[in-house]
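Protein modeling request. Please complete all fields; requests missing the sequence field cannot be processed.
Requester role: graduate student
Desired output: 3D structure, token encoding
Chains: 1
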Amino acid sequence: MGEAGAEDAAPPQAVLERLKDFGQEQTLALWKELNTNERDLLIKDLESLDLPRVDRIIKHSLAQRDRPVLNLEPVPEASVSTIEERTLEEREKWWSMGLKAICEGKLAVVLLSGGQGTRLGSSEAKGCFNIGLPSGKSLFQLQAERILRVQRLASQSVADGRVIRIHWYIMTSPFTHDAIRKFFESRKYFGLESEQVTFFQQGTLPCISKEGRIIMETPYQVARAPDGNGGVYSALKSSKCLDDMAMKGIKYVDCYGVDNALVRVADPMFLGYCIDKGVATAAKVVRKVCL
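Delivered output (291 residues):
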């Protein structure tokens, strides 16, 4: 029920016209049922939306939805390198090149960890989830221990006794940020130094119906979700992580998704391979086998 005297108050004209321009006036459908405070919250929420950007995303998504995917071809074999086909000498060279870059502080690790484990039946962040290992280790712990292992190998490879550290940038979301920070703090960063771990948040986008309409979480609040792994680019920039990388002299970035339980984080051989080939980007995959 609306508060007395508020029933006749109309939405701000500028907000209404802006919503109509983008076909999203349904977000005000329950305006008359809201009290004054709820109306203020709704207007503030709607004004925070970048409607031109949201509209571009919606139109592009709807246009692509029913189009057949054409001209997809396998990566040319000339661009593929299979580790088993390489000589021991090549692999040792790449390992040394990668380890040298790590010792020089040129590698950072970026973890994409904004999603929740809802498909796993959990409301926790995926990295906190118990995936059923006999050790009981979480994904975060597995990955932290792999970083620690590479750091030890790098430290052992230098003659001056320096302790090598790899900076770990962890992308969270507004829905997981606090829980992930507390998870790391309560476990003392799994042996890493807290100064070498940076948490930064990805953005959000409104949830959209199949018809391209913004979905409401409540009558006065837009439903939102993390803006996907592609949001890492804008998130790194807006969070000043790119500036931090530049200041630290970081040249190479190992980026991966949190739900990859087998990932070789900061793999010196793969890093050395990429440096040797002079490529801007590369992906490590397991070739699909058709049975």
